[in-house]
Amino acid sequence: MKQFTVTGMSCAACVSRVEKAVSAVAGVSSCSVSLLTNSMGVEGTAADSDVIAAVQKAGYGAALKGAGAEAAQADAGDALADRETPALKKRLAASLGFLAALMYLSMGHSMWGWPLPAFLEGNPLAIGLAQLLLAGAVMVINQKFFINGFKSLLHGAPNMDTLVALGSAAAFAYSLFALFAMTGAQLRGDMAGVAAYMHEFYFESAAMILALITVGKMLEARSKGRTTNALKGLMKLAPRTAVIVKDGVELTVPIGQLKKGDIFVVRPGENIPADGVVVEGRSAVNESALTGESIPADKGPGDPVSAATLNQSGFIRCEAARVGDDTTLSQIIQMVSDAAATKAPIARVADRVSGIFVPFVITVSAVTTAAWLLAGESAGFAIARGISVLVISCPCALGLATPVAIMVGNGMGAKNGILFKNAASLEEAGKARVVVLDKTGTITAGEPRVTDIVPAAEGGEEELLRLACALEQKSEHPLARAIMRRAEESGLHAEELSDFQALPGNGLSGSWRGRAVYGGSYNFISGLAAVPEDMKARSEELAEEGKTPLFFSAEGALAGVIAVADVIRDESARAVSELKNMGIHVVMLTGDNERTARAIGREAGVDEVIAGVLPEGKESVIRRLKEMGKVAMVGDGINDAPALTRADIGVAIGAGTDVAIDAADIVLMKSRLTDVPAAIRLSRATLRNIHENLFWAFFYNVIGIPLAAGLFISLLGWKLNPMFGAAAMSLSSFCVVSNALRLNLFKMYDASRDKKIRANHKEKKESITMEKKMKIEGMMCGHCEATVKKALEALPQVAAAEVSHSAGTAVVTLKGEVSDDVLKKVVEEKDFTVVSIQ
Q: pTM value?
């Protein structure tokens, strides 16, 4: 996505106009404009010059944002810098000075008899001329409204500035006419006419409209500036310099000169300048800026570090691995900026309304004025009603309703290590009805750990662990590493082992303390030592729990059993419980065997377990689950990428592979499963806030326009002065932005207020499933299993197939009717023999 800075926009009608103009350029596939950040994201093959020309032709300015990390951050910071508020403050201060004098003349003197200077006392013409000059001064100070408003009108795209400019100009023009008419009456000596025309002056309304709109713009600008605080905070974290080591000498260089492979040093209290790996030293690093995790992480040689994290305690020397716009920080900033530049689907509603809103208001204003004149009211009364309609209408509130809430929601997420790649993903996450969790690395830690140590009757746990540690020290198997880690945690050191042998498919053997020792599966050890029934039963219990029991023997006697398993994360059960409490159906999807998967699923508390699914099969499972509603898939590996893409919302664990992160819509930087319900919670809160903003924006205009037109005068006697209409217009945008800022107070990890989403018809229908067991001959290995499984799962009626070459069976779970002949045919086409189907 290419990003451009757009200038001259003032409301949602401007956004609609720019999007329409750029979308018409050949080669543009999508265009999204943000009023909040004055930015535009364009996708496609169109030349930059053509895009800029289209924006300029529409009556606005555009420039391509810079490339590279520093330029990108500078551009982002530039786009988010609050230049509006200081400029508006100056304009407002100058306007109020002239407006105060004008109000003194027009209202203070005429209504309350306040004294005037001698040269004005008793001279209506001089008073009128003074009001003309003071109102003119306010209009010159706020000329931007007239320049932008009439330019947009000439381009056929009237906007909020057009409404303000027309309202103020109409009040000024009618007052000017009244001043000339009063001059004529004074020359004729018609003092009654002079007094009558003095009451037709609306100079103060012309000036007050501009001043009040400027007040509203200033409040809105200040509030809009606060919505991007989270992103600005991230940008400030980026260090400007780095201390690198060249030829043994430390040199301070600008961050742009730091290259991959450079060695840089970081002292306590300094921010780390780039992503890299520690090569020397130890320290505690505060990573809260990126992950939201408040507890510092201990770092030593070989550990990764990230740019913008804070080195708290020790001196470390690191090798740069990712620099510039490749760093995690730059990617986060880019992701949040892109999300701000994209548009949520719900925003399209406001855009469609905004496109016709301003022309509609101008038409209503003209019709209102004409109707009151035909009804016999004075020109002054009729024009006042028409002006009120113009200045009370607010397309700005409609335009800001969605982007401000999206920006605050995105900022809240980024601050807590939850990154939404675009506005649509922030909106869609809260609508998820099904959450699919990958097992390994998502529900579980992704690395085996020792869970149980069961020594034989004559030995103790420590002695068994010493034996296992000595035997496994020379093995590269993941289960061996789990035993070595447990020994290290227990303070045990591997003792000398001789005659080590790894027996493929069986186990390990060696000589320890002069004794022959063995380790491996039950089948292997039972042939070397007697295994008591109680130990066998215990090992079967462990296997039922999804653990792998490893047997150890010494000198022909069983030493004991050590169980190893990929244990579930500490927070997994709580995360699943929170998701279920939100009314979400939680599914665990894994390629692991059924027994292990069900044991993990029980411990985590998921609603459904789908096991034995190959990577290509995960995508088809997601397609099936989408029948229940919107599906969110959470994964971390390369094999999860197709499923992440197929799901309505793909969620990647931050510690996972780059492929998974690229395929996902949401990235969890902390790699904590509790961030999944937090992300859904934040999405729901943001969507709720958008609905409130849109309701206010529509409700305000639905009530305000009839009130301004005078429809309630005959019913309730309510008559709206144009000045109060301008004040209401100013406050409407301010209220919308202020409501969005309330999201900053939202507690996304508080599950106490979670509400279940009402199930739709599809969700209420329970799917009827049945199983068939096939006896198959000819399967010899895991490849044969995969071939049979793939063939069966290719059938649309098959939900899943559990195939075992050792048992010679395939257990087929069906979601629809299918004949035995069809099942038999697809298997036998792969050159296997189907003996029976039950």
A: 0.65
